[in-house]
């Protein structure tokens, strides 16, 4: 089974390879709700999005990432 540190290292490694600026923000899971997160960590709601990741367990392994903008409802 893949652990959180392995997933984090994989994502950070990929982001580093893109040379796109990014920031990793450690959060308290009690503030994972978008509105609560924005308030606690001082992020404007209009700059936020929720990410949904779906991954298959069977081969061929496939995954899908969907971004959802809470203010517009756009996917």
What are the key terms here?
75 residues; alpha+beta; two-stranded antiparallel ribbon; 2 strands; 16% strand
Q: How many angstroms does the end-to-end distance come to?
A: 30 Å
Class of secondary structure makeup: alpha+beta
The rounded Rg comes to: 14 Å
Note the main sheet.
2 strands, antiparallel
Helix-strand pattern: HHEE
Estimate the strand proportion: 15-25%
Please, could you describe this protein's structure?
The chain has 75 residues and is α+β, with helices and mostly antiparallel strands. It is built from 2 helices and 2 strands; from the N terminus they run H-H-E-E. It has helices at 4-18, 34-41, and strands at residues 50-55, 63-68. The chain has a two-stranded antiparallel ribbon.
Characterize this entry briefly.
The chain has 75 residues and is of the alpha+beta class. The chain is 31% helix and 16% strand. It has a two-stranded antiparallel ribbon with strand order 1-2.
């Amino acid at each position: 089974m893949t652990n959180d540190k392995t997933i984090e290292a994989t994502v950070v490694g990929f982001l580093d390879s893109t040379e796109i600026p990014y920031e990793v923000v450690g959060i308290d899971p009690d503030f994972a709700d978008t509105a609560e997160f924005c308030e606690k960590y001082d992020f404007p709601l209009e700059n936020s999005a929720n990410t949904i990741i779906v991954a298959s367990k069977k081969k061929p392994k496939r995954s899908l990432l969907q971004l959802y903008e809470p203010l517009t409802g756009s996917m």
